[in-house]
Design a protein that fits this description.
Largest sheet: 7 strands, mixed
Structural class: mainly beta
Order of helices and strands: EEEEEEEEEEE
Number of helices: 0
Distance between the termini: 39 Å
Number of strands: 11
């Protein structure tokens, strides 16, 4: 059974840090570009960051540049999102998604039509 499972979310104070994990089962993650997305209450889902299948290229949305870092460990079939200096506006449900790299090229992109999606993990930034 193909699954992506996010973990590591929770409640954190402004300025704090969290590390989200996205663990894959039922398929080999190293053939996929991986993206992190988030959806805040009352807002549309937005792309946050992505990493290509080899882990050699990344992209970030402007609002998280310099604060978030995406990485992957293909041996563990897991992708991470390190989030530092968190702000209240980072509060959202965070989703990871996998995009089959074959035919997509070297670079990842934050596409709406990713092949697989996780169920999401809530991050709340509040004092």
């Amino acid at each position: 059974q193909v699954q992506l499972v996010e973990s590591g979310g929770g409640l954190v104070q402004p300025g704090g840090s969290l590390r989200l994990s996205c663990a894959a089962s039922g398929f080999t993650l190293d053939r996929y570009h991986i993206g992190w997305f988030r959806q805040a209450p009352g807002k549309e889902r937005e792309g946050v960051s992505c990493i290509n299948s080899s882990g050699t290229a990344t992209t970030y949305t402007d609002s998280v540049k310099g604060r978030f870092t995406i990485s992957r460990d293909n041996a563990k079939n897991t992708v991470y999102l390190q989030m530092n200096n968190l702000k209240p506006e980072d509060t959202a449900v965070y989703y990871c998604a996998a995009d089959r790299a074959a035919g997509r090229g070297y670079f990842c992109s934050l596409r709406s039509d990713m092949n697989y999606w996780g169920k999401g993990n809530l991050v709340t930034v509040s004092s």
